[in-house]
Every structure is written in structure tokens, then in C-alpha cells.
Amino acid sequence: MSDVVTYNREGAVGVITVNYPPVNALSHAVRFGIKDAVKRGQADANAKALLLICDGRTFIAGADIRELGEPMQEPGLAKVIKFIEDSDKPVVAAIHGTALGGGLELALGCHYRVAVASAKVGLPEVKLGLLPGAGGTQRLPRLTGAQNAMEMITTGQFVGAGDAAKLGIVDEVAQGDDVKAAGMALAQKVVGEGLQPRRVSELTDKLEADKGSDVFTRFRAGLEKKAQGVFAPFKCLEAVEAAFTSASFDEGMKRERQLFGECMESDQRAGLIHAFFAEREASKVSGLPKDTPVRDVKKVGVIGAGTMGSVISMNFVNVGIPVTIAEVKQEALDKGLAVIRKNYENSAKKGRITRAQVEERMGLISTTLNYDNFKDADLVIEAVFENMAVKKSIFGRLDTACKPGAILASNTSTLDIDEIASATSRPEDVVGMHFFSPANVINLLENVRGTKTSDEVKATVMAVAKKIKKVGVLVGNCYGFVGNRMLHQRGAEATKLINEGASPAQVDKVLTDFGFPMGQFAMSDLAGIDIGYSIREECRKAGEDTPRSWMDKLAEEGRLGQKTMARVYEYEECNRKPIVDPKEDELIAEFRKEQGIESREISDKEILERCMYVMINEGAKILEEGVASRSLDIDVVWICGYGFPSYRGGPMFWADQVGLDSILSTVKSFHSSLGGDQWKPAALLEKLVSEGKKFGDL
Ligand code: NAD
Question: How far is CA 371 from each of CA 130, 292, 367, 374, 395, rounded to the nearest angstrom?
Fold first, then answer.
């Protein structure tokens, strides 16, 4: 008998309890223990039904990552599940916390399921480039029908207990949190009513209902738009389809196995696994002791109710933290509040939150024109215009208005945190908290440490990221930090490619074919062309060598992006899909003529190499300077903040896959043909190549 799984009989119910902290993952001991306990239950003449529950904070939350990459020891999960399903005594699963991946597959092998109201279930394997390989793709559609199963399995999204009951995944949702009581109640009902094992593999009504329908064709067409180029979701779809087309459950299981094998062999899996672990690792800041105290953040102030400030406020209100927003004028506050309300009302319309929650959240926001109202705030985030003088004057005023120990943060996207901190008498409390737009959608929070930022403040802003459900990455202070510094190089290179002969649509297509959700110029249109223009103008005023480009011409003509409805692209009103604007060609041709540039054919390969390698070279400089402590931090910034395809693992991981030696030689050749500091090979890149190492070895 395994010590992580116990068997005890309570009345007519044989109770199988898994106790394998922290998340009852499906280790070899757990699999073996469950099978053994089911055997004992079958042999126990007084047990009329069996109940599977877990101790601790959750039901089985998936595979044991400690065993990842090791050969699977018998019994494999699919066999354990079949053993449970074949039991002639009914088996009930009682779910609390999360039943994920193999955990949910195991619950689907049980004959009846109850979940406490706070529980969640899901099959997230696709996020690691896999499909549920222990019958999940065959059993789930037998309970939910094709459409629901495909949605859950191809996205890996979790569903709450209430939805799980509506979908037929669980039979009952229990009131309260007592999972043992909920499980016992259902098991006793099964015994009392003499219910027989109900084997999901034998259910056919949902299969019959969807057989021959066009649900798969429609779903595949949708997937081709949403997940183009991503391998695993299509394999998940094929596996679910096999449940409907196979002659038997066992045939479907065979197909699931084959498709699982194909996923295991896909290159994309390595990238996704790296992305998954990098995201977890990013929260553990290197050099920051684990026991660093974290300050309480119970009240937040936000300065500026513009694009960023208003939506940043929502992040705190969403988790119950009250926010006071300050502005220069009442109208700006009203406008900001209206944006927040509209966002919440849209969420309510989509059923994501209730009407009562809209009012509850709005009720947590107060507004002010006076910084004295920040005297109780534990954290104040400044989100006003990107202008150093304005920001310094605000931080000077905050220094006077805020209580000792309050954290003073700036949402600046590029400016020097140390210079901002110098306007206060407490630089140790000053930090960058760089949210990304739209701040209610993009889940990255790039926290920027100044030279004097205290460890306590660093630890607190990382904890705040977690609290507001963002992925926090702690980076160093420099122009543009990690993300925008690299983006700036890509943007400049993309613009030069157009100067030389490429078209914006060609450059953007290369980037979207690579897997970015949008290209460089569609992104400029979205952010506003004036933003880049004013940054370049500032550089020019400061005497920096910033050559003119056709984008400057665009800004000067008032074509500022989507907000002016005149930009790089025209847009279809209904879906904002970019359409090439013929006037664009004229403007670019005119620019080339003015500059005496002879346009040439530029290959997609050159576009990809110039756009990507210039970022990798900059990323290497960022690592060399210690602005990012690990290459995985850069990867996470780019995956979570800029839509870098997670199946490629982030820019630095991708570079390791391409081969640093080949990247270095191309960087060198661009340096000699194109010139410019951006192509000067990073010393770190040269060092790694000479030592035969990768970024991942650092
Ligand atoms: P915005 O122009 O939309 O809003 C700025 C707001 O600040 C305005 O409503 C203005 O009235 C207010 N303001 C100006 N001075 C003020 C003061 N002294 N006190 C109170 N309010 C004041 O700008 P935004 O796009 O929200 O950008 C704000 C900051 O966020 C900038 O530093 C920007 O670099 C950064 N940022 C912007 C984005 C983006 O995509 N927009 C993304 C990340 C970071």
C-alpha cells in the first residue's frame, strides 16, 4: 500500500484519499496507489461504492512535473483510468481546487462526479504543445458534445464548477467547501438508489447528436484564423473528431495515442515547455532573498485617467483593492471613469461579470484633483504624459503628500527611473511599473528597478503583479527597459526596410507568418504614429543621429494611426482588419525620391533576419549589461507583452534553436553592409559563440 494514497471504509463507502502535496500531481506513487486502493475497494465486501478525494488544497492538478522527461513507469495513467472505469462497484470523484489535465481525465474515468462550487476543471495540455493523452479527448466529448469539448481542449481554458455542471462534466455542484461531505453525500446517494457504474466510454447520445454535422469543418475554419501555424490545437481537434468517426472507444483511444505521439515529436513543444517554465521562474527574482519582506498594498493611487491610468485602475479594483485616481481637470476624470464603466459594462454584456459586480467595482474607485488624497495610499502609480519634467514635478509633490513607506511607481515606457526618483527624498521607494496597453488584456507587468530601489519595494511590486494576476518580470533601468528597447530596434529596422524597397504589408506579413499576432506597422497604427514620431523628434532635438523616415512624413501629414482613421493601412470598419492603402505607396515613393534612395527587391528572408536578429543582438546587450538577469526574463517579456509566439519560446530561446553561430555571422555581415551600432555584435553573443554555449546556458 502506498503512503500517498489511503483506503478507509466509512459505512458502505470505501474512501480513497490522495495525499501528495502540494497539488496531488499524478506521480508514479499516486497512480500506483490509486489502482491499489481501487483493488482493495473491490475486494472489500462491505464497500458498495468507492469515493476518490484528495487532501490539501486541490484535487489532482495534473502530471507530476518532477517526472517530466523521464520514461513513464507502469501503471500508466490511461491504464489506471481504465481500471477505475471497469470497476463493477460505482466510483465517485469529489473535486475541489482544480482538476486539471490527467486529474480531470481521471475524474472522467470515475462513474459519478461532484465538485464544490469554487472548483475548476480543465485540460490545459495544449498549452504545453500536447493533447490530453489518457482518454480526455475521447471521454469529454461523450459528456459535452463536440463543440464544447473542442473549445476546452484546443484552448486549454478552465471552467468553473457551475459551467462544468451545465456542460455535463460534473453531475452535481455542492454548496460550501467541504469536499469530503459532498463526496460522501453523492456516494451514499449512489448506494441508496442502487445506481450502477455509468461508464463515460459507453455513452453514445452526444456522439450520435454530432455525427455527420459540419461542427468540425466550422471549428477547423475558426481555428485556422485563431491558431494558424500552431501545431497542437489542430491535433487536439483531430483527436476529438476521432471520438465521432472511430468504430469504437478503443479505436478512438488508439488514434488519441498516435496524435499524442505526433505532438511529442513537434518542435513547438520545446518552445511551449520553455515558455511555461520561464513564466513561473520569472516570478523568482534572482538575487532577491526569498524572505524579503513584502509591504501591504491595500489602497492604491493612480495619477492620470488617460489610456493607461484608467485601465491600470481596473486591475486593482478587479481584485477588491480601492483606487483613487487623480487628474488635472474634472473633465479628464469623468472621461476616464466613463471608459472604465464602459469596459465593465461590456464585460457584463458578455456575461463575464454580473451587473452587481459592475457597480461594486465602480464603487471602489474615487477621484480627486488633489494629491493630498493620496496620504493613505500604499502604492501610487503615475501614468501621465511621457515627459520627464512633468513626471519629476509629480514625484516631488508625491514625496510631500504620501506617507512614509508608500511605494511611488511610474508607468513610463522609456524614461530613466533614477532621474524620476531623484525628484524625491526617498529613491528607495521609487520603482517603474510598466503596464502594457490594453492594460486589462495584456498580462505582462515589467517592473523596473532603479539603482536605489530597495529589495522590499522590488519584492512588493512583484507580489502586486501576482495579486492583480499579471506576470511580473523585474528588469533594470535603461531607455525602454527590456521590451521597448528591443522593440525600438525592430521598429527602426522595419522602417529602414521600407525606405530601401519593402512594403509595410510585406514586412508585417513576414512577422505575422512568424507567429506575431500583428506586424510592426499594424502595431504602430494601433499605438499611434505620433508616439514614435515625438520620441524621434525629442532625440533629434537632443542632437542624436536619428535619420528621417517615411513614418515621419506620415506623422507630419496628420496620419497618426487608427485614431485618425488615416494611417499606414486603411481598415475595414467592422473588424479593423488592415487593408493596404494605395496612397501609402505614393508617400513612400516620394520619400525615397526625396532621399535619393534607389528601391530594391527585398526578400522575406532578409526581412525576418533583420527584424529578428537586431532584437537578439540587443537582447544580448541587455543581458550583458544586467538589465535582464536571465534570458528567460526577456523571453517572458516578449511572450506576455508583445505576443511573441509562445511555441517559439521567446526571442532568446528561439535564437538558441536557430544557432548563435549562424546568427552572429549574419549580424556581422549586416554590420559590414548596413553599418550602425545596432548591428555591432554584442560582446556576449561573441563570447557565447566562442565558448560553444547558448543563452540558455547562462
Ligand atoms: P494619455 O495621454 O492617454 O493620458 C495621460 C493623462 O495624464 C491625461 O489624461 C492627462 O490629463 C493626465 N495628466 C497630465 N498631467 C497630469 C498631472 N500633473 N496630474 C494628473 N494627471 C495628469 O497617456 P497614456 O497613453 O495613458 O500614457 C501615460 C503613461 O503611460 C506614459 O508615461 C506612457 O509612456 C506610458 N505608457 C503608455 C502606453 C500606451 O500604449 N499608451 C503603454 C505603456 C506605457
Answer: 51, 30, 10, 5, 11
CA of 298 to the centre of ligand 1 (A): 23
Catalytic annotation, pick one of 10, 70, 125, 624:
125
Q: Look at the domain 502-599 and name its fold.
A: N-(1-d-carboxylethyl)-l-norvaline Dehydrogenase; domain 2 (1.10.1040)
Q: Tell me the pLDDT tens digit for each residue of 632-690.
A: 999 999 999 999 999 999 999 999 999 999 999 999 999 999 999 999 999 999 999 99
Per-residue pLDDT at 575 exceeds 60: no
| Gap from CA of 629 to ligand 1 centroid (Å) | 29
**pLDDT tens-digit series, residues 50-109:** 999 999 999 999 988 777 767 778 999 999 999 999 999 999 999 999 999 999 999 999
Domain residue spans of the chain: 5-264, 300-478, 502-599
Set 85, 105, 446, 493: catalytic member? 105
Superfamily of domain covering 5-264: 2-enoyl-CoA Hydratase; Chain A, domain 1 (3.90.226.10)
691 is known as an active-site residue = no
User: What is the percent of the chain with per-residue pLDDT over 90, rounded to a whole number?
Assistant: 82
Q: Is the CB of 385 under 6 A from ligand 1?
A: yes
Q: Which CATH architecture has domain 300-478?
A: 3-Layer(aba) Sandwich (3.40)
CA of 95 to the centre of ligand 1 (A): 45
**Which amino acid belongs to residue 279?**
E
Q: Is 105 a catalytic residue?
A: yes
Q: Does the Cβ of 305 fall within 6 Å of ligand 1?
A: yes
Q: For residues 226 and 234, give the distance between their C-alpha atoms in angstroms, rounded to a whole number.
A: 11
Q: H helices of 409-479, where?
A: 417-421, 455-467
> How many C-beta neighbours within 10 Å does residue 388 have?
15
Q: Is the CB of 368 under 6 A from ligand 1?
A: no
| Structure confidence at residue 482 (pLDDT) | 97
